[in-house]
Write a structure and sequence with these properties.
Strand order of the largest sheet: 3-4-2-5-6-7-8-10
Signal peptide: 1-17
CATH topology: Rossmann fold
Number of strands: 10
Radius of gyration: 15 Å
Structural class: alpha/beta
Shape: globular
Number of domains: 1
Keywords: Signal
Protein name: DUF4154 domain-containing protein
Number of helices: 8
Helix content: 25-40%
Largest sheet: 8 strands, mixed
Length: 170
């Protein structure tokens, strides 16, 4: 049932939403429902963004009372000075918009096992070691998952999410 809902959401959002960032925001929220963060002892699902003034982070931060499996969401803005261990402790899902991506992503990706579901917006992000990317193709936003990085994570991505994803590399 959730797969049908996610697939319908992914198809319909591109037609309804005003901007790609609004679609990415909604997809980031929905994606969290299909990831089991077994290593986390937290009372919320923790999202981190490199920018809360615009982009998907701004849209998600404006939403009130959103719950994922009965837990509220928490939104944090990353800074250039954020350390790898700090990021792992405070973020379940991190969206990189490219602003400070290279400063944080490279050393963070080398951390094993990966404890954070990292999401970007382009193929270069996947090539650098990101776990997933929400890539615009025409009027649609598609979820791509990096197969190689998925083998290195400490959380479980449910098969239902995998069925609506494309894989990188093919």
């Amino acid at each position: 049932m959730r797969v049908v809902c996610l697939a319908a959401l992914m198809c319909s959002l591109s037609a309804q939403a005003g901007t790609p960032d609004q679609v990415r925001s909604a997809l980031l929220f929905q994606i969290a429902k299909f990831i089991d963060f077994t290593h986390v002892q937290s009372d919320s699902v923790r999202y981190c963004f490199t920018d809360l003034s615009k982009g998907p982070g701004a849209f998600l931060a404006q939403q009130q009372n959103l719950l994922i499996r009965g837990q509220p969401i928490a939104i944090t803005e990353l800074s250039k000075s954020s350390q790898n261990d700090e990021l792992s402790r405070q973020c379940d899902i991190t969206y990189f918009d490219g602003k400070i991506e290279n400063d944080i992503l490279s050393p963070w990706i080398k951390t094993r096992p990966l404890t954070t579901f990292t999401v970007g917006s382009n193929f270069e992000f996947l090539e650098q070691g990101g776990v997933a990317a929400l890539i615009q193709e025409g009027k649609k936003i598609r979820l791509y998952i990096n197969r190689e990085q998925l083998e290195q994570v400490s959380f479980k991505v449910q098969a239902r999410l995998m069925t609506v994803s494309k894989f990188y590399p093919n």
